[in-house]
Write a structure and sequence with these properties.
Order of helices and strands: HHHEHHEHEHHEHEH
Number of helices: 10
Radius of gyration: 18 Å
CATH topology: Rossmann fold
Largest sheet: 5 strands, parallel
Amino acid sequence: MDIKSLEEKSYFLRQKTLETCLKAKTGHVTSSLSCVEILVSLYYGGFLEINPKDLEDDDRDRFILSKAQASPLLYTILADLGLYDLKELDKFAQKDGIFGVHLQHSVPGVESTAGALGHGLGLAAGIALRAKMDRKLFLTYTLLGDGELYEGSIWESLKFASHNNLNNLVGIIDRNYLCTTDFTENLVELEPLTDKIKAFGWNVIRVNGHCFKSLFEAFDNLRSRPSRKPTMIICDTVKGKGLKVMSYKPLCHGVPPKGEDIEIAKKELNI
């Protein structure tokens, strides 16, 4: 896809994600919208090599959504790729559906159930190590929320991956500067994040997480293993991107728009 097509796809995914969460009256809207361009780059930009018609292909790339609260977005992408009907999203968070508010492995195309913070990077590192041992060439990607970086398991996994030279592992941080109740730098300061992760032996790239050109440059050439180190891509983003009514508002975490904000949000995304 060209950049214009990717931008149009991103807009559609934002619309559908919002519609899904509004219908269910639950779901992490802002957490989903902050990482739209990241997942569009992976799934539609050609960087994540998977075959939707053969989800058990052992040579496929793996994608682990560690920030599993962004499940509505991933569910929407997988439906758009044809793994199930888009109408199934009407059952999001419903008893007769297969979609939990947090990510569920029972959904076609989902590699792992997740929800508790801090698990994805360790799981991805284990998959990457297994690939090394079995001489497999696939890449393992994992998307983390910056709030997850408060978990000690993340830093243990950073050390483990570096020690084992897992240059087939690509971590991605959705750096939207917001946690559940406040801005990250008001809670426990994370910056200088680039320097901290480099100190654990990783290559670090920092980009605008809403710019396809920057994202493509970051993902390009990773398959050629230019270094023995694992790579972390820090993506500066806006939590709730596309919805001004929900952006930069900590207490909008984990919920769709409510009250008069519903119509404002619908108007912003032309729903």
